[in-house]
UniProtKB/TrEMBL annotation:
Classification lineage: Bacteria, Bacillati, Actinomycetota, Actinomycetes, Mycobacteriales
Keyword annotations of the record: NADP, Oxidoreductase
Superkingdom of origin: Bacteria
Cited InterPro entries: Ald_DH/histidinol_DH (IPR016161), Ald_DH_C (IPR016163), Ald_DH_N (IPR016162), Aldehyde_DH_dom (IPR015590), ALDH_GabD1-like (IPR044148), GABD/Sad-like (IPR047110)
Pfam families per record: Aldedh
CDD domains: ALDH_SSADH1_GabD1
Sequence ranges assigned to domain Aldehyde dehydrogenase in this UniProt record: 3-454
The protein's name: Succinate-semialdehyde dehydrogenase / glutarate-semialdehyde dehydrogenase
The UniProt record lists the keyword Transferase: no
């Protein structure tokens, strides 16, 4: 079997890659298991040196790697270069801060009648990472950087439409001097994942992807009693209250919705606006959305490139068409452009009801759903009326409202007067159908550690 890399801006095949056989996968697992046995014994300084070299290589490869990412999944060159820079930062962040994150956590020895008591963080071993195409480098690095610094080794099953980026990642860590087998890419089908996760040599898994994929991985891991971290997307609310700077909110809302061509799990998707400022905000927002240029992702003046796959665009079209058929109003966009490639314009729709599929489903494209809230209570109700709980945004300058929404929003992250994004310095993850577990910061590095309790008796 083989997989094709297809340029979403043209629909042309740009490469064909053979999938690994089951026997070849078994060999890869054996190599990973042997690497895990020895890599866990390396020093933090050795691991950090490897991550710093990887960061330097990313800086050097930025131009060519960005072109590869753009050709494979359609993000603009500007966005691709920014993603590469973010990955280099993430590698350096963990190289610098992992020693303090993994230092022994000292307990109260007197309270437990010991001479010494502490917790030590040790690697679990081989970790399977099942990763998506939308941020093909960053999604992997934000697992790999903390995982490798903790002493784990990685097996990457990347999305089938970004095989070149997937193979680059293995080569990156090899060129950075990490030992053989510490990070390997598996060009495989989704059907081969279960057998890998059930292999006793694989200790745990992490997945970023759809709710369905997360449920599948979670069920397999649960039956094998293996640790799993799941990040499964979201339908993030962006709440605008009367005290907000409406022009600034609308501009940020447009960036939040259209980032990465609208294909981001933490992109704001539902824009919930207090009735007192609804009309004014809508005017600003529609104008901002309509001003974004859709086109060739390699051009400097392009804001939004194509969606990554033809099926992805079909899914977006079906959600918008269903809403319109049931009474929603299109305020801008909403029509597939002529020509090659899987483009879709920035779109704003209003008058959405619970009968529409778009009310409960995540839209993975530059489509914004606009809601009118009768008051602050109604805004919070609408924001929480979703099965997802990843990121959230609220715009207000009222301190009481800020505290209320920080406490009241059902989400793993709350951003006030800004847009949800990810940083190595703050944790990332969700609740409800957005998954469980945390990435980044010390929370992320410890997800795949054995938190070992150590109790040492007083000497006689």
């Amino acid at each position: 079997m083989s997989v094709d890399a297809t340029n979403p801006a043209t629909g042309e095949t740009i490469g064909t890659f053979e999938q690994l056989t089951d026997d070849a996968v078994a060999d890869k697992i054996a190599i990973a298991a042997e690497a895990a046995r020895t890599y866990r014994l390396t020093s933090l300084d050795e691991r950090a040196a490897g991550l710093r070299r990887a960061a330097d290589i990313l800086d050097e490869d930025s131009e060519s790697l960005a072109a590869t990412m753009t050709a494979e999944m359609g993000k603009t060159l500007t966005a691709a270069k920014a993603e590469i820079a973010k990955c280099a930062k993430g590698l350096r962040y963990y190289a610098e801060h992992a020693p303090e994150m993994l230092a022994d956590d000292i307990a109260d020895a007197d309270a437990v009648s010991a001479a010494r008591a502490f917790h030590r963080f040790q690697p679990l071993g081989v970790i399977l990472a099942v990763m998506p195409w939308n941020f093909p480098l960053w999604q992997v690095i934000r697992f790999a950087a903390p995982g490798l610094m903790a002493g784990n080794v990685g097996l990457l099953k990347h999305a089938s439409n970004v095989p070149q980026t997937a193979l680059y990642l293995e080569d990156l860590f090899r060129r950075a001097g990490l030992p053989d087998g510490v990070f390997q890419t598996l060009i495989i089908s989704s059907k081969q994942v279960e057998k890998i996760l059930r292999d006793k040599r694989v200790a745990a898994a992490t997945l970023t992807g759809s709710e369905g994929a997360g449920r599948s991985i979670g069920e397999i891991a649960g039956s094998e009693l293996k640790k799993v971290v799941l990040e499964l997307g979201g339908s993030d609310p962006f709440v605008v209250l009367p005290s907000a700077d409406l022009a600034a909110a609308a501009k940020t809302a447009t960036t939040a919705r259209c980032q990465n061509n609208g294909q981001s799990c933490i992109a704001a998707k539902r824009f919930i606006v207090h009735t007192d400022v609804y009309d004014e905000f809508a005017e600003h927002f529609v104008r901002e959305m309509a001003s974004r240029k859709v086109g060739d992702p390699t051009a400097d003046d392009t804001d939004i490139g194509p969606l990554a796959t033809e099926q992805g665009r079909t899914d977006v079209v079906e959600l918008v068409d269903d809403a319109v058929a049931k009474g929603a109003k299109v305020l801008t966009g909403g029509t597939v452009p002529d020509g090659p490639g899987w483009f879709y314009p920035p779109t704003v729709i209003s008058e959405i009801t619970t009968e529409m599929d778009i009310y409960g489903e995540e839209v993975f494209g530059p489509v914004a759903s606009l809601y009118r809230a009768t008051d602050t209570d109604d805004a919070l109700r609408i924001a929480n009326d979703t099965d997802f709980g990843l990121g959230s945004n609220v715009w207000t300058t009222d301190d009481a409202e800020i505290e209320r929404f920080i406490n009241g929003l059902d989400a793993g992250q709350v951003f006030v007067n800004g847009m949800t994004t990810s940083y190595p310095e703050i944790s990332f993850g969700g609740i409800k159908n957005s998954g469980h577990g945390r990435e980044l910061t010390a929370f992320g590095i410890r997800e795949f550690c054995n938190v070992k309790t150590v109790w040492v008796a007083e000497q006689p």
